[in-house]
Structures are given as structure tokens and as C-alpha cells.
Amino acid sequence: MVFSGSHDLAVELLAKKVGKRIDMLTLSVGSLDGLMTLRQGLCHLSGAHLLDVNGEYNTPFVQHIFPDRSMEVITLAYREQGLMTAPGNPKSIHGLADLARENVTFSNRNAGSGTRLWLDRKLNEIGIPAQSIRGYENTVSTHSQSAQAVFSGKADAALGLRAAAHQFDLGFIPLFHERYDLIFSHEQARLLSPILNTLQSSVFHRSVEGLTGYETRHTGEQIPI
Questions:
Q1: Contact (Cβ atoms closer than 8 angstroms) between residue 21 and residue 193
Q2: Are strands 157-161 and 106-109 parallel, antiparallel or unpaired?
Q3: Neighbours of 90 (CB within 10 A)
Q4: How far is it, in rounded angstroms, from Cα 215 to Cα 161?
């Protein structure tokens, strides 16, 4: 079973949990590219955290990309994102405005990822040109790679999951919570039943919350579209 979508640590955990029943290949290509891959029939399942201008996550994008198909949207988890910094925050980074400082190097996410889209929208809202951020053009495709860039000293800051910062013992400045959903066509529901059943288990919920920065109160709930 092929998953193609936004990188997520809980998805990686899910793949391990169902590994005895389903060989789940996870491809981290970003939220938008993941939905397009699903549209093209190149994967069975996608994951996204795309915030629409109306404040709704994912469903407006699913409606737009799949107007002729019966689709299902299931919440994986809510998760926290923010700025990851070196331990102790030696550059005194406190918010997005600090990314434009000359002494700060940033590690960005790939175009089309939900994290990158959120960042670009916020930079536009507060009037910070992308070209003023040192390292804006340097991109990675996962939250773990973002954390690794800060951990190794290649960057002073990166936008990513609290869970990824926790894995590398980095500093973390919380900025927002978001909903991450799994998306698939209705006709794939039977094939994906081991995954959907795992989402309902208390064991999986506890494992996800153990990642840090995840909330599973709505995990496994279907979102109407």
C-alpha cells in the first residue's frame, strides 16, 4: 500500500503498527503533491494539512481536486508546529520576524508542503519579503530533515513539528496547532481497513501522544465533505 503526502511522524508510526498486515510504503512529497498523486492513481492513501482561506483544513482542496469522486477524509491527529532553534536559543529567535535578521539562517520546507504554504501566507500577512530571509531557498522535504539542519548547525531556525524538535532536543517556539487528515477514495476503504482500525485503537493513540505535540482526541473521526 502506497502512502504519498505530507511528512508526519504519526504516519511513520502508523506504518510500523500495521506492518505485519500491510506493507505500507510512505513517500513524503508534500500535501499538494500528495493529493495530485492520489488523483493520478499513483497511491492508495494521502495525508495533508492544507489550511484554506476560510479557515477549514483540507476539505476545500479535496472538493476541488476530486469533484467527480467519492472521497473520505479521516483525522489522523492534531499537531503543534513552531520554530525550531538550537538548544538555549542562542540567536534569541522569538517569532517569524526574526527570520529576516542578517545573523539568522533559515532552513525551509519544499514548495507545496502545508508547512511552506502556511509560512508563505504568514510572511505575506506581516510584510516580510521571502528574499529577505537568509536560507529561504534551501529546502528539505521532511520535518526530521528540518530538525537535523538546525541540530547540525546548518541553520539557526526551521519551521516544523514540536515532535521533531523534541527528537533532536532542540529549542521550540510554538506558533500554531493544525489538523492532519488522511484522504482516500471510498472504493479503497476495504483495502485500508487495517489502517482505519488501527486509528481507533487506544494503543495507537497513546503512541502518537508520546511523540510530543500531538493530540488524538479526534483521531479516527470522519470529516464530512
A1: no
A2: parallel
A3: 10
A4: 13
Listed in sequence order, the DSSP H helices in 54-142 are: 59-65, 114-126
Q: Looking at the predicted structure, is the pLDDT value of residue 20 above 90?
A: no
The predicted model scores a pTM of 0.95
- CATH class of residue range 80-176: alpha beta
2-79+179-223 fold: D-Maltodextrin-Binding Protein; domain 2 (3.40.190)
- The residues, ordered by sequence, that sit 6+ positions from 203 with a Cβ below 8 Å of its Cβ are none
The pLDDT tens digits of the residues spanning 28-61 come to 999 999 999 999 999 999 999 999 999 999 999 9
- What average pLDDT does this structure show over 58-65? 98
Strands (E), 23-170: 25-28, 46-48, 71-85, 106-109, 139-140, 157-161
Domain ranges of the chain: 2-79+179-223, 80-176
Report the C-alpha dihedral over residues 72, 78, 83, 84, rounded to 10 degrees: -100
To the nearest 10 degrees (0 to 180), the angle between helices 114-126 and 31-39 is 130
By the 8 A CB rule, do 205 and 219 touch? yes
Question: Within 10 Å of residue 79's Cβ, how many Cβ atoms?
Answer: 25
Matching CATH topology for 2-79+179-223 and 80-176?
A: yes
| Percent residues over pLDDT 90 in the chain | 97
Give the DSSP H or E segment for 175.
Answer: strand 171-185
